[in-house]
Write a structure and sequence with these properties.
Layout (H helix, E strand, L loop, with lengths): L1 E4 L4 H12 L5 E4 H4 L3 H11 L1 H4 L5 H5 L2 H4 L4 H10 L8 E3 L4 E3 L3 H5 L2
Parallel strand pairs: 1-2
Antiparallel strand pairs: 1-3, 3-4
Length: 111
């Protein structure tokens, strides 16, 4: 199992704690340090859709220029998330069978 995110994010901390409490081992991928590649984002978009992955409520999105926010489609969303990985909703948990975007206590409890 692999969790993707940013270590100082409160939601990431909750998700890590939930997995650790259940004794579930996972690898952590730090977007800020390790980045994210286009192929991974394309795979995730195929599974859950780019609108689920792209965080349009966060500070990074709000700081974008009007041109960057205009006419967003999957290709543009992937490009933006590659450049600004903070824009990816957190956490993304790859269970091997599927990905789970965001933290939901009930969903994590069922793992």
């Amino acid at each position: 199992m692999k969790m993707y995110g940013i270590p100082n994010c409160n939601t990431i901390k909750k998700a890590k704690d939930a997995l650790t409490a259940k004794g579930i081992e996972f690898e952590f991928h730090n977007y800020k340090k390790d980045g994210i590649d286009e192929q991974t984002l394309e795979s995730w978009c195929a599974q859950v859709g780019w609108k689920v992955l792209l965080n349009q409520r966060g500070t990074t999105w709000r700081k974008l220029s009007a041109d960057d926010k205009e006419n967003v489609n999957q290709a543009k969303a992937i490009q933006l998330m590659c450049v600004y990985p903070s824009m990816i909703k957190r956490p993304v948990l790859d269970t091997g069978d599927k990905i789970i975007v965001g933290f939901d206590e009930q969903v994590y409890a069922e793992l």
